[in-house]
Amino acid sequence: MDTMMMAQRTTSDEMLKRFAGRVDTYDRDNRFFQEDFDDLRRVGYLTINVPKELGGQGLNLAEVCREQRRLAYHAPATALGINMHLYWVGVAADLWRAGDRSMEWVLKEAVAGQVFASGHAERGNDIPLLLSTSTATKVEGGFTLTGRKLFGSLSPVWTRYGLHGIWADAPGGPKVVHGFLPRNAKGYRIIDTWDTLGMRATRSDDVLLEAAFVPDKYMVRFLPVGGLDAFVVAVFAWALMGFANIYYGMAERARDLAIASVKAKTSMGLTRSMAYHPGMQHGVADLIMALDPIGPHLDQVALEWSAGVDHGAAWPARIISAKVHAVEACFKIVDLAMELSGGNSMFKTSELERLFRDARCGRFHPANAILAHEIVGKTALGIGLGERPRWG
Length: 392
Hints:
3 domains; Butyryl-CoA Dehydrogenase, subunit A, domain 2; 4-stranded antiparallel β-sheet
C-alpha cells in the first residue's frame, strides 16, 4: 500500500487534469506528448518500477498496471507511449529480483535518465519476440542489425531502442538476439511514418536499420529461434498487461462520459431526462456488465505474476488471454458509449470520437486475435506452438 500511495502522489490529480487538457491538441496536431513526458520524467514516473535499492520506487507489475490504468483514463496515448519504457524497466527489475543481474545496467541507466523504447514490430512477423525479419551479424565489439522496425514508440525522446534480429550463423544454430541500440549509434534512420487512426501522440515512427551497430554491452539475450525464457515471458507480462490496463482505463472513461451524456439528454416525448428511458437503462446496463469483469481479470493475472505464482508454460497464454479480453471489451464499450450518447459523439469535438479511434488501436497490439487464439488453444491442448496439422 505504501508504494501505491507514493505512486499516486507522483501523478497528482492536478497533473492528470493538465494531461487531459492537452489530449485533443496532441491528437489533432499528431504531436508527441512532450509536455506530459517532461512532467512525468520530472516527478520520477519513469523510474516507478526500478527497485528501491537502485533508486526507484520499487512498484511491481500489479502496482504499475493500476497507475497506468489511472493515467490512461486521462491521457491514453501518453500512457501507451510511457508503457514502452516502463515495460523494459519492469523486465529488468523482475530479473534483478530473481537474481539475474544481466539487465541491471538498464535499471541504473533508467535512474540516470535514459529512455527505453520498443522495436519489435516488423511487417510479416506475427510473433515479434520469437522470430524476426531483421538480420544480426556478429562484428568486432558487438552486432550490426539490418531490417525495418514498425511502431517505433517514443521516437522523439528514446535513447535506448530495444530490438532483435536473427543471427543466422550463430554457433550451435540460428539465434534470436536481443539488444538495445544507443541513440548516438550509426547505421539507422527514423522514418517519419506516424499519421494514424488513433494513439497519435505516441509518435511511433518506423526505424530503418542499415547495419546499425549495437555494442556487446547492450546485448541482453541470445535464444534459439522460437525459444522462450524468463526474459521473453517477462516482456509478454509487462508489455501486454500494460496495454490491457491502458485500454481498461479508456473503457472506464467511456463509461463515465456515456452516463453523464444520458443523464443530460432530453426528449420531446419525456418530461424527465433520457436516463429514465428503459432502452437507455438497458444500454447502460450492457456497458457496465461488459466493463465489470475486466478489472478483476487483469488484477488477478498481474497479482499472480507479481507474487511469483508458477504457471509454467501456461503464462504466455494467460497473459495474452487477459490482454485480448480487455481490448476487445474496451472497443465494444466505447462503441456502445457512442451509441448511448448519440450523434454528437461522431463530431471531432467529442471526446468519445477520439476514444473510439484510440480504442480500435488496441486490437493491433500483439497478439492479434488469430495468433492469440492459436496460442491459448494450443497451450490448453498441450500442442507445441510450432506444430501444424498433418493431412493425408
